[in-house]
Write a structure and sequence with these properties.
The chain is elongated and about 115 Å long. The chain has helices at 39-47, 51-73, 80-94, 104-123, 126-130, 145-163, 167-177, 183-189, 194-213, 216-226. Helix 7 (167-177) packs across helix 9 (194-213). The chain has 228 residues and is mainly α. The longest helix is centred in the first third of the chain and has 23 residues, at 51-73. The chain folds into 2 domains: 36-124, RNA polymerase sigma factor, region 2, helix turn helix motif (Rna Polymerase Sigma Factor, Chain: A, Orthogonal Bundle), CATH 1.10.1740; 126-228, no CATH class. It is 61% helix and 0% strand. Residues 25-34 have low confidence and may be disordered.
Length: 228
């Protein structure tokens, strides 16, 4: 009404927005392009129990595990797959203890070697490691059948002598000379001090060298090859 009093309006009040809002997911391994994650991201997500991270870790380190076992036992070893699985399980269990003092590759190789050492001692199969039924994998391919046969025979003889050494000395020698592990790593792998690992390596080498020098078949092979 003109000239009359105005009806007061009710005060404004805030109303909550009831529309659903997106919730930020917890940090984890992205569902896309997991291969692009770096080692720190994979390890961090594994420690949080992320299943996708476990799969990423498997893809990342399984080739390293297999390569370490192949160097120490050979790819045709009947226990290859079982030992590889045991090593992967131990790696996952040990993630919390990995502090990044070395690369993930180095740590993976060390854990794998430690698993092999424990398993072989537990099963009392040390000598079978050194006496392979198929040593041809370690003999370089050659067109000279005679040279391949001689190299295969020599390798069998060396492995037979290695099997006669104390198993821990032989394993130390194998880790160092075939696996490429240093004394500190070998000490950790074999649950020994660095001094003990060094002593085993020196004594093992000396004992093996004495056996090789006293082997008439090896001496003949080496003489024959040296004359060519």
């Amino acid at each position: 009404m003109l000239g009359g009093a105005r009806t007061p309006r009710p005060p404004l009040r805030l109303v909550a927005d009831e529309r659903p809002r997106a919730v930020d997911p917890p940090p984890s391994v992205p569902a896309v392009a997991p291969n692009l994650l770096d080692d720190a991201e994979i390890l961090g997500a594994c420690r949080r129990g992320d299943a996708a991270a476990a799969a990423a870790l498997h893809r990342r380190v399984r080739p390293i595990v297999d390569a370490a076992i192949a160097r120490l036992l050979g790819r045709k070893d009947s226990r290859f797959e079982d030992l590889s699985q045991i090593a992967m399980i131990e790696i996952v269990r040990s993630i919390a203890r990995f502090r990044g003092e070395c690369s993930l590759d180095t740590w993976t190789g060390r854990v794998t070697a430690h698993v092999l050492f424990k398993e072989l001692r537990r099963r009392k199969l040390e000598r079978r490691v050194f006496v392979s039924t198929e040593p041809d994998d370690d003999v370089p391919a050659s067109g000279d059948a005679c040279a391949v046969a001689e190299a295969t025979s020599a390798l069998r003889r060396v492995r037979a002598h290695l099997a006669e050494l104390d198993p821990v000395k032989a394993w130390t020698l194998l880790l160092h000379d075939a696996g490429g592990y240093d004394l500190k790593e070998i000490a950790e792998i074999t649950d020994a001090s660095v001094a003990a690992a060094q002593s085993r390596l020196v004594r093992g080498r000396a004992e093996l060298q004495a056996r090789l020098e006293a082997d008439p078949e090896l001496a003949e092979l080496l003489t024959r090859r040296g004359a060519r």
